[in-house]
Fold these 4 entries.
Entry 1:
Amino acid sequence: MNATATAVRVEGLAKSFGPVLALDGASLSVGTGEIYGLLGPNGAGKTTLIRSLVGLVTADRGSVEVLGRRLPDRAVLAEIGYMPQSPALYADLTVEENVRFFAAIHGLEGGRARPQIAEALQLVDLFARRRSVVATLSGGMRQRVSLACSLVHRPRLLLLDEPTVGVDPQLRAELWQRFAEMSGQGVTIVVSSHVMDEAERCRRLGLLRFGRLLAEGTADELRGLAGVTRLEDAFLALSERGR
Amino acid sequence: MSLLRTAAIARRILQGFRHDRRTLVLLFVAPVVILGLFYFLIRGGSGVPAVDVVNLDQGELGTVLASHLQASTQIAVSMTGLDQARSDLASDRVAAYILLPPNLTASASGGGLAEPEVHLEGTQPGLTQPVLAALDQSEASLLGSIGAQSGARLPTIRPRLTYLHGGAGLDTLDYFGGAFVGLVVFFLVFVVTIIAFLRERSQGTLERLMASPLRRSEIVAGYMAGFTVVAAIQAVEVALFTLYALHVHNQGSVVLVVLMTLLLALVAVNLGIFLSMFATTEFQAVQFIPLAIVPQVLLSGIVFPVSTEPGWLQAVSELLPLTYGVDGLRDVMLKGNGLTSGALLLDIGVVAAFAVALVVAATATLRRGVS
């Protein structure tokens, strides 16, 4: 497999925080344009794995290669969009000012910036609220601003840590529609989630437990592997086996 | 009112302290440090102002007055020649020199007027007052001993005061004004930066910055640039208000006052970023104020002159940026020094060096944003 076909390659990644082992030799690879879903219970290591893909975690062991570049590599970060679990925004700035700031630090300035900022705001359905100060927005709206901030610079790899928490079902469906379109345009998306109907929309799923990848495959493959008909049951059954 | 519910709140607060050991330590350590400093500053010093006494008196009165001055516990007297005394005063080695003129005994005889000359350095009230007090006491005990010896008519002793800088026309605000301009800006800029940077960390945006192509040095430089704009406006405003609305005495250039204040603000920005790395909550950051700011204020010579501190405390004072900032502002405002003055250039250089060193330190500690 060459570098253009593989967007993310993680090998034997281990990381402990004091006595807590967050990742214990996790390995996975994600193809270009794929939507890869990371499933797993709380504390399974999903967030640590996603953070390690943007160099926020220095691993104890193992290697991370992103868009053909071995991390740490600052330059490749310009092509990644990262949305953390809690909406990390400047509460005293407006929606548009936040999005423009994150565009600028990813190198998006000047004439190109304006239409892309507008597009990102429309995508999360906040164009009309662009002049609102973030502190005045509800939790779900902040989540959407955060998403706009992570994709305004049109990254080739989008890392989303539970992106639709607090977002209503209708907008969630629209967002996943857009994720699918972006994937069609060659954008690779790694997304962690608890929501099973979201998992169904991923091309491939990885089941993370105790810092290791227990199972990997399409939703159908995972159901087949567990011998059940519902993805949620597969998730529970496979998690039990990992013990 | 339910005792149970009230007790639940009290218990919750104590549990919070138990989990936040650092707050607990600061809560008990800070007062000891601050009160201990007061002790050493007020009581612990060998620290009394140095004074040269030049006795040119041909009679015996000068010798007697000089020996009373030497016996004073409020000043440390050396007997010198006039040239030595003048150069000591010009170079800040003494707070004053007292000249007992050749005709002192002669003019005092028969209830006449004796006029010792007191040449004060004049920029630090904390040094001027002990000199005048020591002279008063020496005069009183001198007159007492003369009166006890004989029924002779007592002379009148009236010292003639001259100030190398400043003078009798200056009041307390004139002396402290310069130091306060620096202190106010330093303090406010520090507090605003440490809170702003801590919020960057606690709201998670610092993590986002770390996940972007930004360099750490770009983050620190950006912070510095942003706060410098605000600090510059504040420095100009505070300096102009002090000089033109409060009419605080300024002997030197307004531009230099603003420049010195701005340099202090730069140090404060970077000190704020640097120290925010050691706090995890805004609560803890606020506690850096008594620990980082109060000792600096006490040791910077604003109230207690550095030269009267015990030796080891002087060494600490010389490691603090505010000491040089305050000294520089006094150089300009009270002495009228300009950029040709070596002392002022040293102050400016040291404060600038602190700013640079703290930029480097702040950049280095930013790594802690990544786990």
Entry 2:
Amino acid sequence: MRRRRTEPLTVLFAALGGLLLLFIAAPLLWTLGAVSPAALMAALGEGEVRRAITLTLWASLVATVLALLTGVPLAYLLARHDFPGKRFVEGLIDVPIVVPHSAAGIALLLLFGREAIVGRLLAPLGLRFVAAVPGIVIAMLFVSLAFLVDAARDGFAAIDPRLERVARTLGASPWQAFCSIALPLAWRSILSGMLMMWARGLSEFGAVIILAYHPMVAPVLIFERFEAYGLDAALPVAALMILISLAVFVLLRMTTRRPEGRVR
Amino acid sequence: MSGGALRLEALEVRLEGFRLAPLTLAVEAGTYLVIVGPTGAGKTLILETIAGLRRPAGGQLFLDGAEITALPPERRQTGFVYQDYLLFPHLTVAENIAYGLRRRGLRRRERETRVEALAAMLGIEPLLDRRPATLSGGEAQRVALARALAVEPRLLLLDEPLSALDPATRLRLRGVLARLHDALGMTIIHVTHDFEEAFTLGDRVAVIHEGQLLQVGTPEEVFRRPNSEQVARFVGVQNLFRGRLRPLGDGYSRLHLDDISITVVGEAKGEAHLSIRPEEIVLSREPLHSSARNSFRGRITAIEDRGTLAYVAVEVPPVFTSVITHRSLEEMGLRVGEEVHIAFKASAVHLF
């Protein structure tokens, strides 16, 4: 049998696509290559860098948990029920993705600022949003919640609702049917949504910087070092953040890869 | 395990542009009721409404005399088996069966004992540690049955339980269903579009067509004496019979029903069902001397002329229905009340 000749179209498209892939990979690899392991370790040794990275990881995790508690129920409703205005709700969830993130920060500031309505309301509880960790958390939450809600909704939607109906006839309350059937079956989607949201939160700069320049998250620290001391000063922190993001990304691929059984 | 008596009182089932006429129907405790209707007649909706999974648009439901119309599904004690099994994919077979027992708060020991007993009854012990994705259709449906039976339902609802299976498996599972009903005596409501299932399994058969409950009765009543032309057209002419087989020893068997016996191909004994397609039954005015092993004399009780074809019912007894062309009907000049001869080959008899 003669081997089929590769189509010229395939060759051309592969070449064009390859350019784009190179465009993604080259800067990342270059950055990592430009920093010696010693410089990376030195950066990790700095208190300011460690604090910024810890704060970034931590704040994004809190934002993710907040979205888990409120967004997963919302995702379940969206997957299981039809109601007037459903399309509007689904659109609204995705709006933060398309709004410029600095504009999103301004919008949040308008509500959560010291003298603003929600800011004043929550101040007695000790919650300050401007130049404080809660401000970082809500900025990250706002810009990244769509990733979790959408993933969870798709996860629930892929489960045959009759599975829960069977559970009901077997004596499960709606709550038990959700916890024992829907949640475990959608768990993989929810987990990957959480990782995606967490990773997106880690990298947030625009919205965070408007609400809280200090305490400094890692992306802001990179910006500040670049502004104050130039490229060489910013490089090690940038390389560290790229490595962390890649690690999260690998984790994400691992959770989504195994297509276990068929979820019906 | 004892069955519950179910009563539907003007029950209205509706779903997005689809509706059934108000249904009134009483099912005695321990009955095996088969609801037959074409695909898309709303049979699944009826079952889901009985199970409490859908809110009826009107009417009432009673189980053992108590109204359950507003009761949530988890408090109705109905077992539900769907055509496509719907096993919980993240649980093992044993965990699937034990699901309802967990919800009832049974201890681990009791759960294991019950699961093993059910698995033994359904012949699925070797599968207990498997995942649903690895099961064949027949295995999955047995597991789904065991899972439903685990909660000792007062009412077992089966939604086309055999339709997704290959013919051999379907036959085996039909036997399982019949045995389960005999052994456990629970009330079963089974919906299907398959007449053979209705005839072999049902104590009672209900015919649903175009949103209407047309007839309820024993399988013999519904298939032999349709109460309306609609039912007759829907169930078609089946020539369905039930009798006892006795092998003849020469590759044939005899089936005794009423005062006659029919010769069939194959050697078998015991209770059997058979059907003969109406076009296989030859009609004539004179005794037939053909190779057909079965020939009888009877009286014409009805003639239904449908244009090119005519259906002629001949009471031997029982009543056989034959189809002939309109032309031969005229040529023979057949009239109701006249004596005729019928004949059919042993190989024309379909045993099931």
Entry 3:
Amino acid sequence: MLTSRAEPAAAAPVVVKASEIVKRYGGLTALNGVSLAVNEGEIFGIIGPNGAGKSTLFDILCGITKPTSGSVEIMGQDIGAMAPHAIARTGVARSFQRTAVFADATVFDNLLYGRHASFRHGVIGRIVGSKAHRDDQAAFMARAEDVLALTGLANDRDRRAGVLAYGVQRRLAVGVALMADPKILFLDEPAAGMNGRETADFIALIRAVAPGRTILIVEHDMAVIKELCSRALVVVDGRPVVVDAPHHVLRHPEVVTAYLGADDE
Amino acid sequence: MELSPTPLSALSAGRADRSRAARDARSARLTKILLAAAVAAIAGFGLVVSDAFILTLAGYTCAFGLFALSINVMLGGIGEVPLGQCLFFGVGSYGAAIGMLKLGLPFEAAALLGMAVAVVAAAAIGVVTLRLTGAYFSIVSWGLTGVAMVAAINLEGLTGGPLGMFGFPPITIGPLQLGTPQTYFYVTAAMLLLAVLFLVAVRRSPFGAAMESVRQNRHLAQSVGVDVTRVRLKAFMLSAPLAALGGALCVPYAQIVTPEVFNVGNTVDGLLMVLLGGSQIIAGPVIGAAIFTLIPHFLELDPNVRILLFSSVIILIMMFAPGGLHQLGLALRDRLRRSNDADQSR
């Protein structure tokens, strides 16, 4: 059962709302009655031990997986019947845990692929150099320069994404997600496999992109959650345990026994 | 939206921007030079070569090159192996033949009819089969060519049955006699060049970017707002009329259309051309088509030796550059750039 829940701040509207999410795979119940409400502008964490159902919850929240029962609303819109690309176009971006970038493309082309869904010109416009094409191109170039500078990738722009170091690829993944200027950013274990230096760089990057956005992070690394999140939800065995500020969450008795008891620092 | 680049990164971004603009200008100039070279090569080949057989073979190679381009829209474009692509090639051939013999249409109208039927067929087939990916899509599309072959054999009233269709009137496009080897070559080469230019424009358009993002990582593409199913269907519907045009333009050369056009061997030939020339270069399949048909002719290779030779080459390509020969080029470029970077930092 949920034992404590921080009240959403009165002013900020809820932009991601999940109600009583249940997900069953055959006889296995991966999620059992998880609800959450993420406020606009918040950095919200989802944590839990391996196999707790974090990733399933994450996939349901961004519409990749459909829940067995329960509903997800993003910016007031029920996403139950929406295709993943349609959800993306409402201003939601996600980064993947694996295969996070277009490995065969250059850094610059990765950013192009991140943006082109919002282009308004077509093949004919490209051939004749229409105004829509020039406008799209100008907007893309300006945006790409900003994102390259922000992610520190300006000097790698012509390198193939597949040859970049792991931490750099993760920064690029965030860059790709930022190209469409999403209002909500979902990050799936962004710091997994990073070394300490890469993690610190990554935390700085997320802080820099956070203003004006709502960010939802699934993460195993407690340091990342403590550094970034205003609130975190703990999931254990598919059920929600507590939602609170990270330092409160970590002291919660059930969390200590169920999750941190094993590998507390 | 707050994005505040530090002065240092802004500086380097500006520098890179200038070098990119310079590179874009270079690449635009290179495109023009390549285009001029292609036109000159086509004109020169048609003027210099007087051997009617070579000219006709070159024309046929261009027609088959269109088919290879069509295959590469699927393979190089969205990463599917379209074993059933000869279905559209056959629809083009039969469209031209039926249009001319049964409907009394001029060749160009008959060819357009075949292309239109191919687009409609691709839409109908694609809606069902493009839910599948990888080997499943390949096998189902291959199966459909078997259906087409059985239909072509049995619909004798329409297709002439197993004997096929032949005895065409002189084939012309407007005032151009496709029976003349030089004219046939010029027409097919011009069509091929136009198709390449069109595909270059497609590649550089948002749709081209969408196809490439789907090929490389469909899940990520979906998450940045690409309608993956729609992009795949559009690519399929783009590839079909190209194959049909190739099929129609082979009719003046073959002078007969039989159910054998639906043989998967045709697709395999086209695939070999794509792999030889490189799937990530738009003109790659054309280069592959030239290698595939002209070189064995000049080397006077026995067909069996040819199969042995090409099979070995394909195995080598698959071992060392499974994405096509362009991969070797990419690897080389990366290595050069790395050693360059190392030199600069020293």
Entry 4:
Amino acid sequence: MIVLEIVSAVLLAAGALLVLSGSVGLVRFPDFYTRVHAAGITDSAGAALILLGLLAQGAGWATGVRLLIIMVFLAVTSPTAAHLLAHAARRDGVPVWHEGDPRR
Amino acid sequence: MIAAVMVALLVTMVVALVRAFAGPGLYNRILAINVFGTKTVLFVAVAGFLFGRPEFLDIGILYALVNFVAVVAVLRLTHHRDHVDENGEEVA
């Protein structure tokens, strides 16, 4: 199954790239809300791509179903956690960064 | 390819830990720990495939559950002020 191997490698590489870009955003972005953006988006997309790449390795039904369970659960909880985090920070009065402000 | 994904996940976990130590403030740390937990789930899954033990995925499911519940539980304890305006000043 050379096709499945190529599909798996492409999905895994795309997922690793998204995960790394999320980590760059976590370091480089200037304030909390922009970091939520970087972490939230790349979390959900990178996790889904890596798990799909593992699924394409073809390891049987039991493993595949478990991978799908993890994927659905992360797809539900990761945006929820990001929203809760930003909402709690907004309610707690964390100020929004504007262009020209110092990094914080 | 799986080993390369593992290296990327490890780099991201180290970066998240650096952000958790550097802060600044409470919410940056919670965000970093949340990212660390998500990457741990992926790391467990990838490690299971790398070592030929896909049974590790059960641990990944459990860790995903615990991570989400922990973040929500910590956030329940962080509300101090309810009404703030654009600059973060308290209104009423």
